[in-house]
Amino acid sequence: MARFPAPADFDVLIIGGGLAGVGAAWFLLEEGVAPARLGLLEAAGIGGSSDDGLLLELAEPYQRLRHALGEKAPRLRRLARRNRESLRALAVMLRLEWDERRGGALQLAASAHEEAELRASAAALERDGLALAFLEAPEAARALGAAHDCGGLFDPEGGCGDLRAWARGLAGVLAARGVHVQERCPATALHAGAAGVEVATPAGVARAQRVILACGAGAPALDPGLSELVAPARAQELVFPPLRERLLAPYVSRNHGAGRLHQDGAGRLHCAGLRHLDFDAEAGAEPRLNPRIQSGLERLARSFYPQLASLEPELRLARARGHSCDGLPLAGRHPAREGVLLCLGFGDAAAVLALEAARIVAALVVHGRAPDADLMSPWRML
Prior knowledge:
This protein has two domains: 9-50 and 164-228 and 326-381, 3-Layer(bba) Sandwich (FAD/NAD(P)-binding domain), CATH 3.50.50; 102-157 and 231-324, D-Amino Acid Oxidase, Chain A, domain 2. The longest helix is centred in the N-terminal third of the chain and has 23 residues, at 72-94. The protein is globular and about 65 Å long. The protein is an alpha/beta fold. The chain contains nine helices and 16 strands. The strands form two sheets. Strands 1, 2, 6, 7, 8, 9, 15 and 16 form an eight-stranded mixed β-sheet that branches.
C-alpha cells in the first residue's frame, strides 16, 4: 500500500469515497481549499454503495413528512431536486460517464392503502408548489410495462444512472487536480491531536485540521459514539442478464421504497430492496447475501415480467449502508468531537440528498455556516 505524502498533514481529510465523500471534496475545491491540502480515503473502492437512481421522493409519504416536519418538508424536497440537478450538471461539466437514463421515476403503490397515501402526497405536493402527476392504475401499468392494480406518483424529470461510475469519475478529476485520493485505505482510529485530528490507517497516520466522516456503514466502527445516531444494515440486489427488449423505462420504487426496479443501458434488469422480509438479520456492516431476500427479489421481478422466468440472475449483491435513526441524513458538526464533521446516514437514499449534504458540509468547513444546514444537522438528535 502506498504511504501518505510526508508530512501527512491536510487542511481537510475526508473518510469515505461514495457520493458524499467525493462531493464534499469537489465543493471544498470550489470553496478555495488548495488541492494539495485536501485528502480523501476510501476503505474499499471509490463509489460507495449507492443504488442507481435519481428519485426525488424519500420513502416516507410526503404528507407524513409534511405533518412531522412542517415547513422543513418542502425545503427537503427542493433540496432533493437541487441534488438531482447538481448530479447532472457536474456530469456534463466534467464529462463524467455514468450511463444516465431519463425515463422518469415512478413511485408505485403496492396496496390500496398505499395508493391512498400517494394520492394524499400528490395533493400535499401541489399545495407546496411541487406538483407531480398521479397516474391511475392503467397509466401506471403502462409506465411499468406490466400488469398492476394500483396507481402511483410519476416524476418525468426522474431517472437513473450508474452512481458508482459517477463517483469514480469525479474522484479521477479530483486526483488530476492534485487532491490526495487513496483507495483501499481504511481509517482504523480517530484521535484528537495537538493541532487538529489524527487518523490512523495502514498507510500511516494523517493529521488534519478538519475531518469529514462520509463512510456510512463504517462510521460506528471507527467512532463508537456514533452507534446511537447511525446503524449499518445490508441492502440486497440482484441483476438479470441483458434482455433484448426494453421492459422498463422509468426507475420504479414500490411499497414505500421497499422494492426498487430499473433496467440499465445494457438491458440488464436490476431489482433491489425488500429488507423488511428479514429485517433483523440484515443488521450489520458485513456485505453478506441473504437467501430469503434474494428469493423475494426474484419473485418480485418475475411477478411483473414473465420474460424472466427462464433466466437466472447473473449477479447477486449485498452492500452495507448506514441508516440514521430518524431516516434523515446527518450533515454537520459532530456532536462530541471537535474538528470532525459528519456527512452520512443516507440509508438507501444517497442518490436523493448526498451531493447537497456534501455541499452543506463543505460550506460549514470553510465559512462556519451554510444554507439549509438545519435540515440535516446531527444536533437534532441531542
